[in-house]
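Subject: mismatched residue count in predicted assembly?

I count 334 residues in my input, but I want to confirm that the predicted structure covers every chain. Input:
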Amino acid sequence: MYYLYIATGFALLLSFIVNREKTFKAIKIAVRRFVTILPAFLGMLILVSIVLFLIPDKIILNYLGKNNIFIGVFFASLFGSITLMPGFIAFPLCGILLKKGALYIVLSAFSTTLMMVGVLTYPIEKEYFGVRLTILRNIMSLFIAFVVALMTGIFFREIF
Amino acid sequence: MKRNDSIKIAGIAGYLLFLILSFACGFNPGKEIGHNFLSFSIDMLKLLPCAFILIGLFEVWVKRETVERHFGEESGIRGYIWALLLGGTTVGGLYVSFPVAYSLYGKGAKLGIILTYIGASGICRVPMAIFETSFMGIKFTIIRLMVSIPLVILTSIALGDYLVKRSYKPVKGK
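Triage response: the counts match. Full output below for your records.
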C-alpha cells in the first residue's frame, strides 16, 4: 500500500518540476474523472454493504465446507461472483476452509470467480465500457473460472 | 434531470435514511450494513485518489503514439505481455483497473489487449499471488495461473474481435 503513495507522490513531484501547467492539468483531469465516476462507486458500495450482510463469512464457510463437489462448486461460483472481498480476507478464509476439509476444486472456483467475475462492480464497469461488454466479459470470466476449477480438481485428483 | 437519475438519488437517500434510522433505533442489521459500507468506503478511499492522480498524469504525459505502439493494433504479442505485466502490478482489483483500462483505450489501445489487462488485474496480481501461496500452497497458485492466463488472453482476443466487428463504442465522456 505504501509504495503506491510513494510512487504517486514521486510521480507528481517529478511532473511538477518538469512542467507545472501540465501537472495542474493532470490533477484537474484526476478530480473530474473521480467525481464523474463517484455515483457508480457509491452504487457499488451500497450493494457491497448489503450483500456482505446477507452472505456473511459464516454462510460461506457452511456451504463451501460441504464435501459434495457439485453443490460446492455451484455455491462457490455463486458466492464468488456476487461478493467482493480483498485477497487478504479471501485467502485466509480459503485457508480455513481447506483445513476444514473443503476441496481444492471448490476453493478454486470461489477464488477465481471472486477475482474475475464482478456482479457488484457492474455499475462501474458499465459506466466505462457499456452494458454489452460488461455482461459478455463477466460470462467469459465465469466460464474461465469453471475451467480453472476443473483443472484444479484434476491435478489434485479430486475428480476423475 | 433524467428520470433514471432521480430514481438513483431516491435510492441513495432511502439507503442513507435507513442507516441513520438503524443507528438511531439500534436496529442491528442496519448497523451492520452501515459498518460494511464504511469499512469498504475507507478501503477504497485509500486507493482511488492515487489511482486517479496517476491516471491524470498518464493522460497529460503519455503520448498517444506510445500507447498505440505498445498496446495498439500493431503491437502483436508484446501488447498482451505488456497487458499481463501491467495487470499483475495493478493494486486493488477490478474497480481500479476499469478507469485505467478506459484511459488506455482512449489513447488507442486495442480492445482485446484492454480486456486482457482487466482480466490480468483480477487473476495475476503479484502481491496477491504470493499471499495466496502461503494459504493454498504453490501448486494451487501455479495451476490457477497456468490455466487462467492463456484462457484470459484467448477469450479477450475473441471478445475484442467480436465487439469490434459489431462496431463497439465504449461509453463516452468519462
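Chain B has a mean pLDDT of 91. Marking this ticket as 'not a bug'.
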